[in-house]
Design goal:
- With 344 residues, this protein is of the alpha+beta class.
- The protein folds into two domains: 8-69 and 177-223 and 233-342, DD-peptidase/beta-lactamase superfamily (Beta-lactamase), CATH 3.40.710; 75-175, no CATH class.
- The chain has eleven helices and eleven strands.
- The chain has helices spanning 8-23, 70-84, 112-116, 138-144, 158-172, 176-187, 223-227, 241-255, 261-269, 326-329, 331-342, and strands at residues 29-36, 41-47, 64-65, 193-194, 237-239, 274-277, 280-282, 287-289, 293-298, 302-307, 312-318.
- The strands form two sheets. It has an eight-stranded antiparallel β-sheet, with helices on both faces.
- Helix 1 runs antiparallel to helix 11 (331-342), helix 2 crosses helix 5 (158-172) and helix 8 crosses helix 9.
- The longest helix is centred in the N-terminal third of the chain and has 16 residues, at 8-23.
- The radius of gyration is 19 Å and the shape is globular.
- The chain starts with 7 loop residues before the first helix and ends with a helix.
- Keywords: Hydrolase.
- This is Peptidase S12 family protein.
- GO terms for molecular function: hydrolase activity.
- Residues 19-338 form the Beta-lactamase-related domain.
Length: 344
């Protein structure tokens, strides 16, 4: 099926929505990249990176804390590789590939599939600061926690992806950031990295948590990831709109080919595993919308949308958390992006 880029009218509406959220103070600025599996791109920008960066406008090369997009840009593809290489079994308990533990570990019995589909029943609240002063390793502390629910019901849970990151590091004998960096280099994502990164005019600052305190700038916004040194399975990655576009193009191109591990993993992940709400399901990591649309959001104000059947994608990068609740204030842009990419 030929790949058709979004229309000029689509781009005009997306530009207007991006302008609106900037003008309304939802974010200092932002970038939207639309494109196709064959590498055709169009970049829309508005506003400034942040007042700290002067009048510099955001661009394809601006580095953003992508927050929970870490789940689908780092952890999910690495799990897929490990499954293809026979290192992981999706339906095996996560404790099977973590360092040995003694005694009861109810949270370690949940499977990789349940974690990816957010149906694990693990505790939804994650406060790694509560583990301070203990002498047990983090994987054991997490696995010894009781389940909060019977596995099967959808509930978005970060701690499962923390366990996935720890499991990937153990089974490969390499830190998660090293594994991810190797994969991103293969894909041509030269700017994508786990933090921290140096402050500078090309890096988007995020939140100021305390009046008078320095703004978070170059360090991960997520507090649990910060306690893990900025490298975690659920958050911690910094990327650019250009690299997210490259990533989307890589996934879409693989999907359109027969008999390749990456495309098989994308296809497997587009199978609904649990309902989220009417019209939305959870696949493996990704949210699934009608029309074979897969997408995911990041708390800081980022989103990535894939339409594998039409070969299109939309990447959104903002630092909307700079001005407060990003999810609420940039909702109109996200809703339009989903509607636009869902239109054949």
């Amino acid at each position: 099926m030929p790949v058709t880029p979004l229309s000029s009218a689509d781009h005009a509406r997306l530009q207007a929505a991006l302008d609106d959220i900037v003008n309304d103070g939802a974010t200092p600025g932002g970038v939207v990249v639309t494109g196709t599996a064959d590498g055709r791109r169009r970049t829309l920008t508005a506003g400034v990176i942040a007042p700290e960066a002067g009048e510099q406008a955001p661009a394809e090369g601006t580095l953003y804390d992508i927050a929970s997009l870490t789940k689908v840009v780092a952890t999910w593809p690495l799990v897929g590789r490990a499954v293809a290489d026979g290192l992981l079994d999706l339906d095996a308990p996560v404790r099977d590939v973590l360092p040995a533990m003694t005694g009861e570990a109810p949270s370690g019995q949940v499977t990789f599939r349940q974690i990816l589909a957010h149906t694990s029943g693990l505790r939804a609240s994650t406060r790694l600061d509560h583990y301070r002063g203990t002498d047990r390793p983090l994987h054991e502390l997490l696995c010894r926690e009781p389940l909060e629910d019977t596995p099967g019901r959808h509930r978005y849970i970060n701690r499962g992806f923390i366990l996935l990151g720890l499991a990937l590091a153990h089974v490969h004998g390499q830190p998660l950031d090293v594994l991810a960096a190797s994969m991103w280099r293969e894909m041509g994502m030269a700017a994508t990295t786990f933090g921290p990164v140096g402050r500078g005019p090309a890096v988007a600052p995020t939140e100021q948590r305390l009046p008078g305190a320095p703004r978070i700038w170059g360090s991960v916004h997520d507090e649990n990831a910060a306690l893990m040194g900025g490298v975690a399975g659920h958050a911690g990655v910094f990327s650019t709109p250009a690299d997210l576009a490259t990533y989307a193009e890589t996934l879409l191109a693989a999907y359109q080919q027969d008999h390749n591990a990456r495309g098989d993993w994308v296809r497997a992940s587009l199978t609904p595993h649990a309902p989220i709400e009417p019209g939305l399901d959870r696949g493996l990591a990704w949210i699934l919308a009608p029309g074979q649309i897969a997408y995911h959001h990041g708390f800081t104000g980022t989103s990535l949308y894939l339409a594998p059947e039409t070969g299109r994608y939309i990447a959104i990068c903002t630092n909307a958390v700079y001005n407060g609740n990003a999810r609420t204030r940039i909702a109109p842009l996200r809703a339009l992006a989903l509607k636009t990419i869902s239109t054949v």
